[in-house]
UniProtKB/TrEMBL annotation:
It is found in: Membrane. The keyword Isomerase does not apply. The gene is LEAF AND FLOWER RELATED. This is Leucine-rich repeat protein kinase family protein. It comes from the Eukaryota. The chain crosses the membrane at residues 515-537. PROSITE patterns: PROTEIN_KINASE_ATP, PROTEIN_KINASE_DOM. The lineage of its organism: Eukaryota, Viridiplantae, Streptophyta, Embryophyta, Tracheophyta. One of its GO terms (cellular component) is membrane. ATP binds at K601. GO terms for molecular function: ATP binding; protein kinase activity. It comes from Arabidopsis thaliana (Mouse-ear cress). InterPro entries: Kinase-like_dom_sf, Leu-rich_rpt_4, LRR_dom_sf, Malectin-like_Carb-bd_dom, Prot_kinase_dom, Protein_kinase_ATP_BS, Ser-Thr/Tyr_kinase_cat_dom. It is a single-pass membrane protein. SUPFAM superfamilies: L domain-like, Protein kinase-like (PK-like). Keywords: ATP-binding, Kinase, Leucine-rich repeat, Membrane, Nucleotide-binding, Receptor, Repeat, Signal, Transferase, Transmembrane, Transmembrane helix.
Length: 639
């Protein structure tokens, strides 16, 4: 009973927490899929297994003796021994701003003590190289990014010998009026609050689960307050990060913050959060107020960057954004300089600050309709190719096997133009979702076990130029509209139950057409050859062997004997003597074995009747014996 109550309480707690964390996705990568979601005790965040979001990878766990410094979600990890690119697919809100965090704690999970290095991609674009060398406590990558579709792909790409892995994925939906930048995403550089402390601040202190690290230089002077600081502006920095601030020490009038960049050309976006922690009393007189007002301005890399001077609000946050375009030699500095208008005793202060580098993601993702369609096709046919992950067309070196795409330019979404699923053991029907691949030119479904009919929609796919349906178990007739398509090449042989043309009927009828379909095709070709031969014979009878040596050896079975074309030539002495002209062919005189006289009838190329009738006549002759007819034993036909 007690247990049950505890369990119920647990469920309730989870629901409560999940509701509070709307817009959060917290995945404990590598957590076995049968483990239920859990509440991480330090943060209260509800983490769940990543198994539903990725088709590949193996669960691992960091070494026991290294566990102590990490929270539970970072103890398990997922590593990827197979494939070059392995991708998570996450449901997100299109065109909304997210903070995306990926956590990597190696923890010698494989016992090799060899810190891996690999690439991280967001959809088709490289986000960052993850190099864990020397990162004994792991590493975190964070970006503020707006997904362009409602499906976000985060891919780990193998770059060398080491295996990619990941410990946790954390997505946080942000307000769309914060961190607003044009055409770039914001890669985390640092997020600090200024206090002498060793406490990291994150959720639930920060409603968006941003992680704030304490930072303080010995030459600075710290001020703090025990009063409540109103943190309600659109950024909502956590109150805990605002109740302390750094001011210059040693009677200085400017506060200098410096940092370095690997790439000096990177553009930096700064978000600086201020709150006055030493408010002047309400009823202080005007003159004193002016004296005590803290007013300062920004100097970035030695230049005044922010025209207006800044006056922090009393116990309430204000946030200033500024952009730094170039840091000489990678050395960046921000100075807060006391304004001339603030001659009093108050020096500048800063409570918290975030810095990001701007990162461009130039490649457009594959057309989202194409992506949905190909994923439905993949799911329907249960295609489990290890390389069918992430964006189907990009990067081009990871183009899904069996696809081909059109690439206009980087800002145009690639389109799928070719789909080759031949020999994939596909079963079931031809999926209707293929028709949503509206730019498809080539469709190869040959050598599978597809059943059902040939769908009409194929005829309406305007871009299609080639369809190969050979060697399946398709049934019924091919839609006339499809056969009528002029510029479309259609292959369908090897489908025993498929009717080539016209309506198909009962199963017995089907059987007959199926046998005849290929035969008829063969014969059509054959008659064409025969026509050639005959035309030639009439012109230059002696050259026949040279003309068609292979055909000349073709033989057909007669119930009585097997006769080759060259034998016929011999028999009739190159069709020397015409003894009659029947319905659809000329009859020649000839000798069999140099003694027996025979009549040789050859299907006339000009005959309006075809092979079928000719064959019918032959069959009739075989059955009917009549005195006025040449004895069947002496009737030779060749067609
Ligand atoms: C790793 O974390 C431990 C405990 O927090 C800390 O003492 C140590 O300095 C950290 N190591 C590095 C390289 O950051
Ligand atoms: C944020 O985006 C949502 C959905 O697009 C929109 O309804 C809302 O008005 C936006 N808010 C702001 C502040 O832009
Ligand atoms: C905090 O500031 C906001 C906006 O200035 C205001 O609406 C709100 O009432 C303030 N909250 C408190 C507790 O004073
Ligand atoms: C700061 O200025 C005051 C008054 O001018 C002086 O007495 C004090 O020594 C100075 N402190 C430092 C650290 O320079
Ligand atoms: C950058 O700073 C480092 C030390 O912080 C210094 O050695 C270097 O000369 C500086 N580079 C430039 C271009 O200022
Ligand atoms: C294909 O397109 C049709 C009509 O536009 C739509 O109803 C259907 O949902 C689409 N299917 C997929 C998989 O996108
Ligand atoms: C993909 O299409 C391009 C352009 O149409 C063509 O040059 C290329 O050979 C095709 N690749 C494959 C694998 O079919
Ligand atoms: C990319 O191609 C599209 C369509 O042709 C065109 O409208 C667009 O201007 C091109 N963009 C660039 C950057 O070339
Ligand atoms: C169509 O598929 C069959 C079976 O895979 C194959 O033998 C044939 O060559 C294909 N036709 C074309 C034109 O690729
Ligand atoms: C099937 O075909 C035969 C002859 O080809 C025709 O007489 C018959 O009406 C057809 N049956 C159906 C159901 O179409």
């Amino acid at each position: 009973m007690e247990d049950r109550h505890r369990y119920l309480f647990f469920i309730f707690a989870i629901i409560h927490y999940v509701q509070a964390q709307q817009g959060f996705i917290s995945l404990d990568c590598g957590l076995p899929s049968n483990e239920p979601p859990y509440i991480e005790p330090v943060t209260g965040l509800v983490f769940s297994s990543d198994a539903d979001h990725i088709p590949s990878g193996i669960s691992g766990r960091i070494q026991k003796n290294l566990e102590a410094v990490h929270i539970k979600p970072y103890l398990f990890l997922r590593y990827f021994p197979d494939g070059l690119r392995n991708c998570y697919t996450l449901d997100v809100l299109q065109n909304r701003r997210y903070m995306i965090k990926a956590v990597f704690v190696y923890g010698n999970y494989d016992g090799y003590n060899d810190y891996p290095s690999f690439d991280l991609y967001l959809g088709p674009n490289k986000w960052v190289r993850v190099d864990l060398e020397g990162k004994v406590n792991g590493s975190v990558e964070e970006i503020i990014h707006i997904p362009s579709s409602n499906s976000l792909q985060i891919c780990l790409v193998k770059t060398g010998n080491s295996l990619p892995f990941i410990s946790a994925l954390e997505l946080r939906l942000l307000r769309n009026d914060t961190y607003v930048v044009q055409d770039v995403s914001l890669k985390h550089l640092f997020r600090r609050y200024y206090r002498q402390s060793d406490r990291l601040i994150r959720y639930p202190d920060d409603v968006y689960d941003r992680v704030w690290s304490p930072f303080f230089l010995p030459e600075w002077t710290q001020i703090t307050t025990s009063l409540d600081v109103n943190n309600s502006n659109n950024y909502e920095p956590p109150k805990a990060a605002l109740t302390s601030a750094a001011t210059p020490g040693d009677n200085g009038t400017r506060l200098t913050i410096i940092w370095t960049l690997d790439n000096p050309d990177e553009q930096i976006h700064l978000y600086v959060h201020f709150a006055e922690l030493e408010p002047v009393g309400e009823n202080t007189d005007e003159a004193l107020r002016t004296l005590f007002t803290r007013t300062f301005y920004f100097v970035v890399n030695g230049k005044i960057s922010y025209d207006e001077s800044i006056t922090p609000l009393d116990l309430a946050v204000s946030t200033v954004e500024t952009v730094v375009n170039k840091c000489d030699g990678g050395n960046c500095s921000l100075q807060l300089v006391r304004s001339e208008a603030s001659p009093g005793v108050r020096v500048p202060l800063v409570n918290a600050m975030e810095a990001f580098t701007a990162i461009k993601f130039p490649h457009s993702e594959t057309n989202p309709d194409d992506v949905i369609s190909i994923k439905v096709i993949q799911a329907t046919y249960e295609l489990s190719r290890v390389d069918w992950q992430g964006d189907p067309c990009l990067p081009q070196q990871f183009l899904w096997t069996g696809l081909n795409c059109s690439y206009m330019n980087m800002s145009t979404s690639p389109r799928i133009i070719s789909l080759d699923l031949s020999s994939h053991k596909l079963t079931g029907k031809i999926v209707p979702d293929i028709q949503n691949l509206t730019q498809l030119q080539k469709l190869d479904l040959s050598n599978n076990k597809l059943t059902g009919g040939v769908p009409e929609f194929l005829a309406n796919m305007k871009s299609l130029l080639f369809i190969n349906l050979s060697n399946n178990n398709l049934v019924g007739s091919i839609p006339q509209a499809l056969l009528d398509r002029k510029n479309l090449k259609l292959e369908f042989e090897g489908n025993p139950k498929l009717c080539a043309t016209g309506p198909c009927n009962s199963s017995s009828g089907n059987k007959e057409t199926t046998v005849i379909a290929p035969v008829a095709a063969a014969i059509a070709i054959f008659i064409a050859v025969l026509v050639l031969i005959i035309v030639f014979i009439k012109k230059r009878p002696s050259s026949i062997r040279a003309l068609h040596p292979s055909r000349a050896n073709l033989s057909l079975e007669n119930k009585k004997r097997r006769i080759t074309y060259s034998e016929i030539l011999l028999m009739t002495n190159n069709f020397e003597r015409v003894i009659g002209e029947g319905g659809f062919g000329v009859v020649y005189h000839g000798y069999l074995n140099d003694s027996e006289q025979v009549a040789v009838k050859v299907l006339s190329p000009s005959s309006s009747q075809g092979y079928k009738e000719f064959k019918a006549e032959v069959e009739l002759l075989l059955r009917v014996h009549h005195i006025n007819l040449v004895d069947m034993n002496n009737m030779v036909w060749w067609f």
